[in-house]
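Q: Give me the 3D complex with uracil.
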Amino acid sequence: MHVLDVIAKKRDGGELSKEEIEFFIQGYTQDEIPDYQAAAWLMALFLQGMNDRETYDLTMAMAHSGDMLDISAMEPSSDAGEPPLVVDKHSTGGVGDKVSLVLAPLVAACGVPMAKMTGRGLGFTGGTVDKLESIPGYRTDLSVDEFKAQVRDIGIVLTGQTADLAPADRKLYALRDTTATVESIPLIVSSIMSKKLASGADAIVLDVKVGSGAFMDTMEEAEALAHGLVRLGTQADREVVALISDMNQPLGWAVGNALEVREAIDTLHGSGSQGFREHCLTVAAEILQLSGRVESLNAALTLAMETLSSGAAWQKFRELVEAQDGDVTYVDDPQKLPQASIVEPVPAPQSGYLAGVNAAEVGLAVVDLGGGREEKGEPIDHSVGVVVHHKVGDLIQEGTPLFTAHANDRETLEEARERILAAYSFSDEPVQPLPLFYRRVTSG
Ligand code: URA
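A: Here is the predicted complex, encoded as structure tokens.
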């Protein structure tokens, strides 16, 4: 087989065989195919698309390019009877999206093991690994053996992706990022699902964000992605549900690493933003039902609500922090978490109904403050960020606090303040609040 023939076949609109796809992925992962040929191939895939069979073969080839973890057969130390399915959740990325910090302990406290490898933030979207690293000592570099032992012992893991998990995706994603080939549904589906399949989950809930602070800014694109993800998961014999959720304003109140950990802790203690809490409970209910732990979505929601209000989810979060060497005194007393030196409320410039908050702009303002990164590998400041005080639809009086900026120097604070103020729009007429979720996509 020749690399040029495989590139030319796709360039001319042909359908690639499983062997051709495997040949390309193996060759590229092992550095036998150079970046310039992989870039040409990606652009051909981007322009010509791939059918479901090709997307499936690409996903499997990428998943098998490294370790395939088998955690499903392991019995957790719960008394739930049959070993439950191991579940996972993936969000396509958003602003203020700290769902995993609440969801994972909540689901695990309901007796369903949640073993999750998660990422760092890039661009305007935050990453769970960065948020967790606000807790001194918390390790996000567990080995595969530690990952497996922890899910067996306490039924929960939240760690960074190991280097050997879907290495083909790591290389291809970096190349896509620099060759304008990110926004392709088959490429996104294979990238996300290869990592999920390799990390060993039996049941996966996909939180597909749509809106100004999401990868997909139209419902049409979000639906195409959600359907593509669900079809792929079903082909791979996994239980999969996709929820299309709103990202036209930040999720919850806080955006920024330590601030989001604090909000997650508040939520685990039963306070925090009502919308964020409801978001976590809805996703948890889907996961519990997919896992077979409960029979209906209603029963799943009731179990999730009880587990959150009993404090069991909070105790599981503490257990997680302790297991991964985090200093629990910081989560017991969240005031100890990194705090910015300047905390300044910014007043509303006018009265009116809040009509919109461009979430990507808020995310980028937090990057400007030092709380995110533009390039992979850049250090970040965990203490900075923004806390918004209103949701779309709220009636706001001029001069009352609109948001609070947390910064470590005045110049960046002023820039962030202007950027965030410009992200807000107001209306004299009443505005409907935004829904949390738009659609539920299942295989049925
Ligand atoms: N997230 C991923 O993991 N991969 C993509 O291609 C896009 C978003």
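A quick observation: Residues 92, 173, 187-188, 191-192 surround uracil (CB under 6 Å).
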